[in-house]
Amino acid sequence: MGGDLAGRRGGGSATPGSRGFPGGGQGGSGWGCGGDVEESAGGGVLQPRHPHAVHQLVFYSVYGGWDAAVRGPPPYWFPSPVYSKDTNLGRILEFHGRKLLGTSYSNPIDSFSLFQKFSVQHPEVYWEIVLQELSLKFQENPRCILDTSDQSKYGGKWLPGAVLNISECCLLPMKRSDDSVAIVWRDEGDDSSVNCLSLKELRDQVMMVANALDATFSKGDAIAIDMPMTVTAVIIYLAIILAGYVVVSIADSFAAKEIETRIRVSKAQGIFTQDFIIRGGKAVPLYSRVVEGSPCKAIVVPASGKGLEVELRNNDLSWNDFLSSVERFPRPFHYFPVYQPIDAIINVLFSSGTTGDPKAIPWSQLSPIRCAADSWAHIDVQSRDILCWPTNLGWVMGPITVYSCFLSGATLALYHGSPLERGFGKFVQDAGVTILGTVPSLVKSWKNSNCLEGLDWTKIRTLSSTGEASDVDDDLWLSSQAGYKPIIECCGGTELASSYIFGNPLQCQAFGAFSTPGMSTGFVILSEQGLPYPDNQPCVGEVGLFAQNMGSSVKLLNADHEKVYLEGMPIYNGMQLRRHGDIIERTVGGYYRVHGRADDTMNLGGIKTSSVEIERICNRADANILETAAVSVRMHNGGPEQLVIFVVPKDRSSDWEAGVLETKFQRAIRANLNPLFKVSFVRVVAEFPRTASNKLLRRVLRDQMKKELSARPRM
Ligand SMILES: Nc1ncnc2c1ncn2[C@@H]1O[C@H](COP(=O)(O)OP(=O)(O)OP(=O)(O)O)[C@@H](O)[C@H]1O
To answer: Could you mention a single GO BP entry for this protein (predicted)?
Structure first.
């Protein structure tokens, strides 16, 4: 991406006027539309209480004449000079900018893109600065930031020689005091209060659990956590790492067979779980699934906070019995952390399995530093923030959220219940959440059910989204709920412990788009011939990541790392590129869009296109469409790929003619994408198959359609 492109964006001259979108600037929360805070505070016209139709009318009218092909995606949020200097990166740039970038430095907004490039070219300088900003305490300091002398170490050796305990770093009063609030939470159904745990109280709890672990397990054991992301789960997570064990993260939505696979692959010796999961007013059995899936010792936490409501196996322990092992300890709240080299494994995570079997990915102590640093730089997590991201420790966002809060000194906000319901929204309001993370399916559900109506989300200063491609209209709705705050898009992978493309509060933001490669992340976009496009040119292709990527995986437990990520990838500037498998677009104006997995691309009449691109258009072809999925299949007698659109309607009772929909889709695709793409089949379904982390499984829809076609009589 050319510096000039980004510079123009940042400077605002490519935006629709310095006041921009009428929604921006309200709430006085410290940002504005190109002006100073003082000018913009309270200056917004649109309010969260206005119906979505009004927000739509204004947004789509303001940008009605915007030619995206010439100007790129329309930006809806613009950083002000005053706001920019109050961000983490802005502060760093004001302090170091001139020294590092020389006379090229002007201000955080205009110089952001240059600094991102600088961070790729000089990782040792960038990381030296960022390490100082996080709550990190090394027992042995690293010899250097990056050692590339050993050619056999793909991507180099980061922070060689460093010894630390990353869990201890999360618990130290470095970025905040012992009395500051570390975690706030609320149980589902309890609207009365928001519970708080101070940093000191958290540390005491973690140390007590660490002592109890030593009484039950052998050093170095892998210990699984399969429970909702509650305060207790976070305490257990930190305790396992503090005491020198390895966490095996298992999402609480998995069936017994999935639990069994994860326990087997990771060789876990024990598992922390709950009797039930309380969600949406229901008690969903969890312990019974764990018992079916694993013979290893289970420690069972009561979901109700009172007694257990299940009968345990002989070898299993109730949470209370587990903790009672420390009663005889003279100092149960004291614990000496187990210090380990930087590359020691602390957590085994599993990818979502969108492209096949989930990969078992070991995280070293570098990975948490990477997570926290990226959230610090891109989501601007600060010690004054209260961060909520409904997820699970079994998904990459769980550990990312924990480290992003505790290594930056922010407060972690946890809701013990379903994030789909009003109770969650009320918690966000009552807890004063300032940073809210989401996934697109959650946003779609909130918008569709209207369950947040009347709640006040204006304390939120930054929103964030990850997991799947966002829908522009859903994001318009989300941003408007918080008084037009920026939605920072993040796209990466479990194996990277981070994202490779992001939004950033030093740049104008456009709905459903990313504004920059991650700090210190380099990549090229490859043509079909495997050749990199020039980095200032709009293009679409598979992303090839640079090898030197701090915190990314070097090993898989259940697959050959080299085969999965490196084999067959081209060399760029003498450097072996790393596969990520995404097709991305660099737009005019230097934004990025994700077009989905390389496996989901199709060839329609000789033209390559992605599912996501077609879905974006089809989603808006009729008001009663909740979502669409586009796949292509070949007929049993071969021939060209046929386009199939699957549809989930909003109103399931409405009687839909596939023929009418086919015409609507065809018309929309012809007008907005390519007149040559022909819709061959439309199928209306009640819901889409998804991974346990809610990602759309197009490969299952493809198989379903292939089966249907092969069952048809052959001519
Ligand atoms: N904001 C986003 N927009 C679009 N796609 C996203 C976004 N965030 C993540 N993704 C998709 O999710 C992928 C990362 O998810 P994850 O690490 O869980 O692995 P997976 O690719 O879903 O699973 P597997 O590697 O097992 O196939 C990204 O490569 C991208 O395809």
So the answer is: phenylpropanoid metabolic process
Q: Is 640 helix (H, G, I), strand (E, B) or coil?
A: strand
Domain-embedded: residue 301:
no
Give the whole-angstrom CA distance, residue 510 versus residue 129.
Answer: 29
Asked if 181 contacts 160 with a C-beta cutoff of 8 angstroms, the reply is no
Which segments within 527-636 are labelled E, that is strand? 539-545, 571-572, 575-576, 578-586, 592-597, 601-604, 607-610, 625-635
- What's the DSSP call for residue 562? H
Give per-residue pLDDT as tens, 414-458: 999 999 999 999 999 999 999 999 999 999 999 999 999 999 999
Residues recorded for the chain = 715
Do 477 and 548 reside in the same domain of the chain? yes
Residue 241 domain-assigned (yes or no) = no
Helix or strand holding residue 510 (H, E): strand 509-510
Distance, in Å, from the CA atom of 326 to the CA atom of 343, rounded to the nearest integer, reads 31
Question: Which residues' Cβ are closer than 6 Å to ligand 1?
Answer: 351-356, 358-359, 396, 465-469, 489-491, 493-494, 580, 582, 594, 597, 695
What would the pLDDT profile of 588-645 be if each residue is shown by its tens digit? 999 999 998 888 888 887 788 889 889 999 999 998 999 999 999 987 667 788 999 9
Q: How many CB atoms lie within 10 A of CB 288?
A: 12
Task: Note the pTM of the prediction, 2 decimals.
Answer: 0.90
Q: How far is the CA of 582 from the centre of ligand 1 (A)?
A: 8
3-state DSSP of 57-97 = HHHHHHCCCCCHHHHCCCEEECCCHHHHHCCHHHHHHHHHH
> How many C-alpha atoms does 290 have within 13 Å on its Cβ side?
30
| Residue 534 is assigned to a structural domain of this protein | yes
Could you tell me the residue range of the domain that residue 654 belongs to?
Answer: 605-710
Per the CB < 8 A criterion, the answer to whether 544 and 577 are in contact is yes
Output the CA–CA distances (angstroms, integers) from residue 559 to 58, 357, 362, in the order listed.
51, 10, 12
Question: Which ipTM value was assigned to this complex?
Answer: 0.96
